[in-house]
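Figure 2 data, in text form.
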Amino acid sequence: MKTPVNRFKKAITEKHAQIGLWMGLASSYSAEICAMAGFDWLLIDGEHAPNNLQSIQQQLQTIAAYPVNNAIARVPVGDTALIKQYLDLGAETLLIPMIDTDEQAAQCVQAMRYPQNDGKGGVRGMGGARASRWGMFPNYTHEANEQVCLLVQAETREALKNLDAIANTPGVDGVFIGPADLSASLGHVGDPNHPEVQAAIEDAIARILKAGKAPGILTSDVTQAKHYLSLGALFVAVGLDTQILVRQTSALVRQFKPDAGIALPSSGQVY
């Protein structure tokens, strides 16, 4: 059996915009509900959500039953051993937070890839587990390097300074702009819509595209999401499962108890 093609990687390489949803509920039950909606990709968050390796594997298995979706897993940190474990669980596409330099990006590339007989490749341990379907994909170690997809997060002033080098790092497939951390780094904590932050985001999208890589971002504002797509963003998360649950349950109860619950901010949290 041939190692399956990473459809998300193929889509962004061919410049087809992909619409996604951020999942932080850490549940295969809610993941199935999200998978039925028809998004192009679903992000399983291992950085800011209470996920562990087992819960991530369960969600990967759930999403796999709905082939319209592509699963992306975000690791908490760009650690070589942790990247190996996420890949062995069967995650084809990883999002690595807080990448500030091209050296850090290159280390993640190495962690994502198996060594090869020609001396090229990386340092990924020669396992495979669920990723190789326990050996049912006999050429997995030779084919996986072409199918894994590395997305790195640029979310600090330092990352913006080094963005061209990060985006041009061979093996980096896309760069995700983290609006919340970026706004904090630029001195506008809690205000990702500040004009300076938005200008930086628009400039970053253009620079990532110039490098021939896919820009990505998260916003639950529909108008803003469409604006980023018009600028050329190729993977855009347009909502968060946690935020949807909070807002919809609060809106429902207010139909019957106008003063119930906690007042919600006008704009939602982003990563």
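Caption note: Residues 192 and 198 are 7 Å apart (CA to CA).
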